[in-house]
What we know:
294 residues, mainly alpha, 16 helices, 0% strand
Amino acid sequence: MSLVPQVLKSLKTLPPFPLVAQRALLLLNKSEVSIQELVDIVKFDPAITANVLRISNSAFFGLRREIHSLHQALLLLGTQELLKVIIASGATRLFCRATPGYFLDRLGLWRHSVSVALMADLLARELDHPERATAFTAGLLHDIGKVVLSLYVDQKFTEIMEVVDGRGLSFQAAEKEVLGIDHAQLGGEMARLWDFPDRLRLVIKLHHLDKPEAFADDMVLLVYLADLLVLMFGQDLGTDGLAYDGYPEVLRLFHLRERDLEKILLNFGSAWQEAQVFFGLIGGDDGLQCAHRG
């Protein structure tokens, strides 16, 4: 029996996406963002302001002077970097919770989301893509559907794996067959309810490339490739990463060669080591503080 009505009903109790992060998402569509625009959306959220100042002073950015104000942070880091910080700070409130259908570790989904965000950012840089902040954000939020669907996946996990093993389907396809909906579809609906920008909603909904229209948008393809490269790296596979559909033609579409991938994966390893404290994934008080620690 399809669980779609039950799953969609659960969205009625979905908490709002943090307002500051939501406003920052809208700025991704602007070709130029002023310092004052960012200060104006952050200054009334003490938790996000504290996070911005904390991580601006962290070793991740390696600045030579201590930052005491939002204006200083913006001047020294730039608007695009600060957009990433603000959105990531808001996203911790969503992702820092258990998702037992996908990850054994409470921070597993957050680690995976951060990994894909970093990989998408590296890919955008390698490809000289003009929308690096959008690539980072789309990578960070691509799996938001798992936050809600994990409970149902956990309940039906044995049935899902029987479909994966018995019919050779990807975890996502088996998820949809058993539950009637998959995490990408559900994430797209969550993005609609939260009024995310259209491009971001498209990436979230199509990041598994299971519909022909996915191949028409380079940001969808970039985030798919980032997700795949993170799995190749062996970073926080999760249960669904063990059965994943691959589309090698995406590499050809981006004209990426083997040595390009080796360079990206090497850079990812370094970026990941530097980013763990920054994103609150290992001990320390310098990084983002998860709202659901404990």
